[in-house]
Design brief:
- The protein is built from 16 helices and 11 strands.
- It is an alpha/beta fold.
- The protein folds into 2 domains: about 5-290, Spore Coat Polysaccharide Biosynthesis Protein SpsA, Chain A (Alpha-Beta Complex); about 300-335, no CATH class.
- The strands form 3 sheets. The protein has a 7-stranded mixed β-sheet with strand order 3-2-1-4-7-6-8, with helices on both faces. Strands 5-9 form a two-stranded antiparallel sheet.
- Strand 2, helix 3 (about 65-70) and strand 3 form a beta-alpha-beta unit.
- Helix 7 (about 150-160) crosses helix 8 and helix 10 packs across helix 11.
- The radius of gyration is 20 Å and the shape is globular.
- It starts with a helix and ends with a strand.
Length: about 325
């Protein structure tokens, strides 16, 4: 890996004078509509007395989608900027299994761009925000490097896959407690700590030299797990998808994690993790809440179009079918 590309990164300026909440994202061009819903939900719960500095790290965002996202953030106390990291990642052959894309690694270099802040939020783009993120940002994480919640779904996977998976947690990631593995889709980054300890460079070296099971999230845990401030689980709550219920995720969680998961009665952030998303199946848990916000977005029609195309491609009938109204439900009447 060419580390000189990291050394050439120019830090971003601060765009507001006071009461600033810096929020960073990583997104492909394809994922822009879903990032748009996350942004819309942030705005819905925002405080006019605070300023929200949103920075999107991307390698291929189209001008059209940038303009759509900028339209969502068009208000006095919101700023949105786009940072192209294509040159940093173009020559890297990073492991990206299944539904995971190269954009997941972008969060590792964000601290190098955000040096003028002492801490920032990083948020995934498949979130629905149900409480003002200023309340998350303002949590005092002491001198910890990172703040995050336990990864409840990982606990279920450890229960399903057994000793081999647990061994990986202890021997490869060097965790002291496999229940204390954090989820990296909602995190507070201590930028001062990251840069003082060269964490971005170390992490990029790690992912370039080893194919982690859960890619950059595993690397973050290996390096920083013992420097983590543990957030209340309502700040990163993953609804159980249908395939997770079928696989008995809840039953396979450890007693400790299951109790923490069930204790969340009013989530503050919904995280639609894993492969099944509310924009493709409106009957998933909490999908109705997501669609309430989606209808307010300039991406709404594009999201509907994609869902209809996905539904049509999955149709088991031999002839071309009509897509009925009602979130793209396939009608049994064929054209």
């Amino acid at each position: 890996m060419k580390l000189e590309n990291l050394n050439k990164i120019k830090e971003l300026d601060i765009v507001f004078d006071k009461n600033v909440i810096p929020i960073t994202f990583a997104s492909s061009d394809y994922f822009a509509p879903y990032l748009g819903i996350t942004l819309q939900s942030i705005i819905e719960k925002s405080d006019d007395n605070y300023n929200y500095d949103c920075v999107v790290f991307t390698k291929d965002m189209s001008e059209f989608n940038k303009n759509q996202l900028s339209e969502i953030c068009d208000r006095p106390n919101f700023s949105i900027r786009f940072v192209n990291v294509k040159e940093i990642f173009k020559d890297l052959n990073l492991y990206a299994p299944g539904h995971i894309t190269i954009e997941t690694y972008f969060r590792l270099v964000i601290p190098l761009f955000m040096k003028k802040y002492s801490k920032i939020l990083f948020l995934d783009s498949d979130l629905l925000i149900l409480e003002d993120v200023k309340n998350l940002f303002n949590i005092d994480i002491k001198d910890c490097a990172i703040a995050a919640t336990e990864e409840c779904l990982m606990s279920a996977l450890l229960g399903i896959f057994g000793k081999k998976a647990v061994k990986y947690m202890y021997e490869t990631l060097k965790l002291k407690d496999h229940d204390k593995y954090f989820q990296a889709g909602v995190i507070i980054m201590n930028i001062d700590y990251f840069n003082a300890h060269d964490c971005s460079i170390k992490l990029m070296e790690m992912v370039s030299n080893f194919n982690y099971n859960i890619v950059d999230q595993d690397a973050l845990n290996e390096l920083l797990n013992d420097k983590c401030y543990w957030l209340p689980n309502e700040w990163n709550y993953p609804p159980l998808q249908k395939h997770m219920k079928d696989a008995k995720y809840l039953e396979n969680m450890s007693d400790f994690i299951r109790a923490k998961y069930l204790a969340v009665k009013e989530p503050k952030i919904l995280h639609f993790a894993d492969r099944e998303k509310p924009w493709f199946d409106p009957t998933e848990d909490f999908a109705a809440e997501w669609w309430v916000i989606a209808r307010k977005s300039p991406f709404y029609e594009e999201i509907i179009r994609r869902m209809c195309l996905k539904g049509a491609s999955a149709c088991p009938l031999p002839r071309k079918c009509r897509i009925d109204k009602g979130f793209g439900t396939l009608s049994q009447k064929c054209a």
